[in-house]
# Entry
Amino acid sequence: MSEASSPPRRAGRVLSRASAVRATAPAVRLRANAKEAAASLRAVLSRSALALVGIVVGIGAVIALVSTGQIVKEESLKQFRELGTDIVTVRRQFTRIRGRALDLALPDVLGLAPGVPAIESAAASVDANSPIRYRGRILAEGPVFGVTGAFFDLSKLPLAEGRLISDLDRHRFYCVAGADVARGIRDVGPASVLGERVRVFGRLCTVVGVLRSVPPLAVGRQLAPDQTVFMPIAAVMRAAGARIREAVARMHDGVTPEAARLEVQRYFQRVRPELPVTANTASQLIARMRSQGQLFALLLGAIAAVSLIVGGVGVMNVMLMSVRERCAEIGLRRAVGARRGDVQQQFVVESAALCLAGGTLGVALGIAVAWGICRYAGWPFSVSTTAVAAGVSVATAVGVFFGLYPAHRASRLDPIEALRS
Amino acid sequence: MIQKGEAPYTERPDVTSAAGRCRRTADDGSGNDPGRGPADAVLRLRDVHKSYRLGPVRVDVLRGVDLAVQRGELLSIMGPSGCGKSTLMNIAGLLDRPTKGACILEGRDAARMSDDERTAMRNAHIGFVFQSFHLLPRLTAAQNAGLPLVYRGTPDGEIRERAAEALDRVGMANRSGHLPNQLSGGQQQRVALARALIGEPAVVLADEPTGALDPATGREVMAMFEALCGGRNVAVVVVTHSAEVAARCHRQTRVAQGLLVDAPTAESTAPGGRGDTPP
Ligand SMILES: Nc1ncnc2c1ncn2[C@@H]1O[C@H](COP(=O)(O)OP(=O)(O)OP(=O)(O)O)[C@@H](O)[C@H]1O
Ligand SMILES: [Mg+2]
# Structure
């Protein structure tokens, strides 16, 4: 409508004003109401500390729940991908005889494949801390791995050039270099790294092979093949006093994992009756990890539910108190043009922001708890964005849910009564 | 004329027809004020009744109030405590609904409006001034003054601009960043006045605006109301217990036995005084 065709001045203004009020976009109003909410939030914050504890704990539990759940899932997938389901791992149970801890013996591991019909090949590995130096500079911080010949095949580590470590290398200082270590050598030395010598455990060690770059794997413990060197297991055991705590074996096609596991167990009972070992299949490990994860999930879920309800009710109380205290404010806002919906929105936003503040602390707490759980369970730790997103949205949802009732009460106040107070 | 910064002039048939109704209602109005065209009445109360029910007892506070407030008019309402002045103001301000009777603001009957519509009408056409100022304690003077515009969706920058302007108008330009508890009563009432004016209302309803102020400060506030009526053609209704305040108004009325009657004060020199209160 053009200005010229509008009714006389006063009526025109009346019109434009009335329509201006009604035509305001909801988003604009939300922003305005949110700002009003923020202004009064600071005052509310100080005395809602107690209610927020519930939110903090609850969101912390949510974060821990989601991140550990995710880590468990990723870990088990990784195990499948990296090792396959045809792997049996052997771990020695911690035993002491006359004060000395017992470990797996290399001949026993090497005897697995010929001695157990179900097993196709077996490998052992040890690791020991030593930086890897080349011409005075440190190429990697270590640890250095000592492996048997079958280790590369079992761990699916591909050779790029040269040769792999063989069981015939015994305790010679030979090594197969990871991709990054090899690149480090090339940066300062010759283009062909074979025959170059790196310094580990204070001694020179000849590079006989180079691996292709592969992502880190979880074989027993974290291993980043690119940033280390692999030496004959006997060399590392002798140089660093490392002991064999774990061995891996691959079963023949067509053998059931359970049968292979029992055979391996029986083999060790026969060759080392004094050392109890546990043999596990990948699917068993994964199942155990999952059920462990589920237990944590259940526990954390319960903690989350209880504390979020407690916190939510606390926040609701704080908001109800706030509504009662700010009666006059609500009446005044209603008088000057806040619709019921605006008042409702302001209080819901306030409640959500309150919970979000608690939720932010909870996210930090949850990450710490998840870290602790991962340490306890021996899983690699990572912070998932999904977990943080879940924490933030649950906090907001709790705030909105428990803010609805107080906000409704606020919006239903009679402006006259409210102004009188 | 379209106010700068207000939402675009959207075509709303219901609003347009309401404006049309405004004209018609005004023209066929009871026309008992030949001095000013009845078309100028911004606010009209017709046979307004208000009763409260307290258990079995019914208290009839208002029993048929008629009132027409003209543009640019400064009107006083007096009466003993508890006679229903505030009740009347609340009905006129669309905060309360009459038990019976009509309240017509800018040609639109409040009885037919939803709560949201009445809120929008308050925001657009009415400025409130209270005895106890009712400034929000956590907002600065400028933020308090700008509050009505917040609910209009006016952009922040423009709110700040117009709040500064409104504060300047009431002589509070240098206090815009102050919180209410850093201001004296008279200064707080000026900020409240700025808040009432910022939306360019047609009517300002002031319930004992000078009640909490000393006489000199009260006179200053009244001077602002006078300027408002003359300069901006805004109607101002003042409830007061002070004969001096009432005397400065164009027209004096009084609530008695639930009715509103003309009650010119002896020293009244105002050009008004021609009420259209019922016989
Ligand atoms: N919500 C209510 N319920 C019952 N009675 C009410 C209510 N509100 C007002 N009243 C009664 O209505 C009458 C008028 O009250 P009102 O506040 O309008 O008086 P007033 O003229 O403004 O008085 P004052 O000069 O003291 O402000 C009083 O007797 C009061 O008790
Ligand atoms: Mg009163």
About this structure: Residues 103 and 109 of chain B are 6 Å apart (CA to CA).
